[in-house]
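Troubleshooting log. The previous structure file for this entry was overwritten by mistake, so regenerating from the original sequence record. Sequence copied from the archived sheet and checked twice against the printout by T.R.
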Amino acid sequence: MQALQLIITLALLVFIHELGHFTFAKLSKTRVDKFYLFFNPWFSLFKFKKGETEYGIGWLPLGGYCKIAGMVDESMDKEQLHSEPKPWEYRSKTWAQRFMITIGGVLFNFIGAILIYSALSFTYGKTYLPLQNLKYGVYCDSTALSIGFENGDKILMVDDKQPETLGKAITQILLDNAQTVTVERGGKEVAITLPDDIENRIVANPNSFFMMENFPFVIDSIMPNTPASRSDLRVGDRIVAIDSVPTVSFMDFVTEVKPFAGKDVVLTVVRHGFDEKIPITISSEGKIGAYTKTADDLFDMVTEKYSLLQSIPEGIKMGFGTLTFYVKQFKLIFTKEGSQQVGSFVSMGKMYDKTWNWKHFWTLAALFSVILAFMNILPIPGLDGGHLLFLLVELIIRRKPSEKFLMKAQMIGMAIIFAIFFYALFLDFGRL
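Regenerated output below.
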């Protein structure tokens, strides 16, 4: 199911991207020889020709292409470049027309993301947990604890800003070069000075969540034929200790229950305001077979609804917000720690739910559309950004780069792209 959702998303986003190139080519009366969803080395799954263009679906779901006459691209077609430019070719068009044809894919992907975000805002609204509503504070991983945070801290300020949510607070800490975080601890305000290498510390720990909402283990449901179902535990019980070991939060319980695997213990629970002692045998896997209520159930969430007109500016805001976040995050790739966290389609697939979830599906589609737009605008030959770079050079020096130079640059760029792809794939398989 995860693989299916990823393939459908890629098909949609690749189609939108290539449609951008196709649309501006047609507007400038430039011939499009081929329009393909996915790559088709050796053979195509499906194809037909209409007018001057061959349309088809390839068998390799790693992208797609729009082969524009007279343009040096990934097709590496040299034959058309041996003749004089024809009026319908890319190389015969004005600088502005070539610019729009080249940037069309990126433009359509970004507009597509904005439209998806607008539709999500209109359909679902925006539900979030305000930072001030985290009545149990935050739960910290080893990285956060080493910096000076403690479980139960309530974040008040990051530098001189009051973040709206915990996610935004973490973003400021990780990507905005924050210097100080002010927290409430035991009724007092405590200032924590952040180390200069905090980004590297967080990224270096592949299992790091840094901080998450701290919430108690309040039983939401009990699975049949489990230790919990064979005990006197009830829905609504709040587990606060295993034998004499306190478990203030759900994550405390997850950590502390492991050493008791296969053993008889006594859980202390709060039921209707009173402590109760519940004997139970922990499973050999270190579990009791009960689900906890989540932050959505335990805290006061805020939901904002948008009309059709209101959803459009909200979608634009979300699109640019996602792009800004990704651009800031991109700098971490150039660090030793960040380069080890690069992922391929395997990592992307793992982000999907194992069951179909329309909201999550479209949220990831919008995210990946922004990422596809940004990655394609990078100034690497072989990507749209590489073509744009040479167009800008042409604008400055008033002379086109030679087609021989463009062909060599394309080959170098494709080699770089494939090297990055296989490096990311190698890392992903190493994590399996």
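Residues 95-124 form the longest helix (30 residues). Archived copy saved in two places this time.
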